[in-house]
Specification:
Elements: E1 3-9, E2 22-28, E3 34-39, H1 45-60, E4 66-68
Parallel strand pairs: 1-4
Antiparallel strand pairs: 1-2, 2-3
Length: 80
């Protein structure tokens, strides 16, 4: 969990049955951990990230050192 890369994608042309039209991806550079989570709005990223971070840190006993993103607005609002 030295470096996590995060990114969002969407809106997709077709929504899921739960009205999700974006997804949030979290990829670890050093291990095989990765996650792609469908989300309704991009501002749901912080919640998904915090839940995933807690899960991975509990599973590995390691702490996240750095997070890299593309500077998108959903990451720069102070929630992460």
């Amino acid at each position: 969990l030295k470096l996590l890369n995060i990114n969002t994608c969407g809106p997709m042309p077709t929504k899921t049955p739960h009205k999700q039209e974006h997804f949030f991806a979290i990829l670890d550079d050093c291990m095989t951990y990765n996650k792609a989570e469908p989300i309704v709005k991009k501002n749901n990223c912080a919640k998904v990230f915090k839940e995933t971070q807690a899960l991975w840190e509990n599973q590995t006993g390691l702490k996240v050192k750095k997070v890299r993103c593309d500077g998108a607005l959903e990451f720069g609002k102070g929630d992460l």
